[in-house]
């Protein structure tokens, strides 16, 4: 059985372009997985809307609670988010760009996932990720065009973060220039890329 973790962070909810494309991608992956599976046990989707959840900035008190090995109630949010990630086979990230960066709620998710001794560990040669065997697919949605330029602060950041925790299979579907005069045609092209996506 394939488990998909869908992460959203659009302030526009399911009306946001990143959510629209990511929802379509999940349906595409589900269809592929069900066609390729000999077992009839389907696909499970875990959906986490970080904006709707109003995921707050990490505090010192919450971070300190992680040292209590799960016995502190403050640690339960991080534990839950990490367990969702661990239980997934494929992670689909709906990633809008806000002011040249990732949404602050997504950064709050990252801050609760990157836990030394849980998702990565420090060694004499540097940090080593403790997770493996997951595919990350990022649907990067921007009003302007940034892919491959110095202003694309998201792509390398996401590769670096997931690499930290051991996940190096990261791919991107870009939907760019959506605020430009030909934005509708660009959105149509992104929808086509989603429809043609293959794991």
Description:
- By secondary structure, this protein is an alpha/beta fold.
- 36% of the residues lie in helices and 21% in strands.
- The chain has six helices and seven strands; from the N terminus they run βαβααβαβββαβα.
- The protein has helices at 17-36, 60-65, 76-86, 104-113, 153-164, 183-195, and strands spanning 2-8, 43-49, 90-96, 120-123, 126-129, 135-141, 170-175.
- The strands form two sheets. A five-stranded parallel beta sheet has the order 2-1-3-6-7, with helices on both faces. It has a two-stranded antiparallel sheet with strand order 4-5.
- α1 runs parallel beside α6.
- It is globular.
- The two termini are 15 Å apart.
* Overall pLDDT score: 94
- What low-confidence regions span 5 or more consecutive residues with pLDDT below 50? none
Order of helices and strands: EHEHHEHEEEHEH
Strand content: 15-25%
Number of helices: 6
Radius of gyration: 17 Å
Short description:
36% of the residues lie in helices and 21% in strands. The protein is of the alpha/beta class. Helix 1 (17-36) packs parallel to helix 6 (183-195).
Summarize the topology:
Elements: E1 2-8, H1 17-36, E2 43-49, H2 60-65, H3 76-86, E3 90-96, H4 104-113, E4 120-123, E5 126-129, E6 135-141, H5 153-164, E7 170-175, H6 183-195
Parallel strand pairs: 1-2, 1-3, 3-6, 6-7
Antiparallel strand pairs: 4-5
């Amino acid at each position: 059985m394939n488990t998909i973790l869908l992460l959203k962070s659009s302030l526009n909810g399911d009306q946001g372009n990143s959510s629209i494309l990511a929802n379509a991608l999940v349906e595409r992956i589900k269809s592929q997985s069900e066609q390729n599976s000999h077992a009839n046990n389907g696909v499970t989707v875990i959906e986490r809307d970080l904006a709707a959840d109003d995921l707050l900035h990490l505090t010192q008190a919450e971070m300190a609670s992680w040292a209590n090995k799960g016995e502190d109630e403050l640690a339960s949010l991080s534990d839950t988010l990490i367990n969702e990630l661990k239980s997934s086979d494929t992670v689909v990230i709906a990633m809008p760009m806000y002011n040249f960066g990732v949404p602050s709620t997504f950064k709050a998710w990252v801050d609760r996932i990157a836990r030394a001794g849980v998702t990565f560990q420090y060694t004499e040669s540097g940090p080593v990720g403790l997770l493996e065997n997951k595919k990350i697919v990022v649907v990067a949605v921007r009003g302007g065009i940034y892919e491959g330029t110095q202003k694309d602060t998201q792509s390398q950041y996401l590769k670096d973060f997931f690499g930290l925790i051991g996940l190096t299979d990261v791919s991107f579907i870009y939907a760019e220039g959506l605020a430009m005069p030909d934005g509708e045609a660009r959105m149509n092209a992104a929808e086509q890329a989603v429809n043609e996506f293959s794991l």
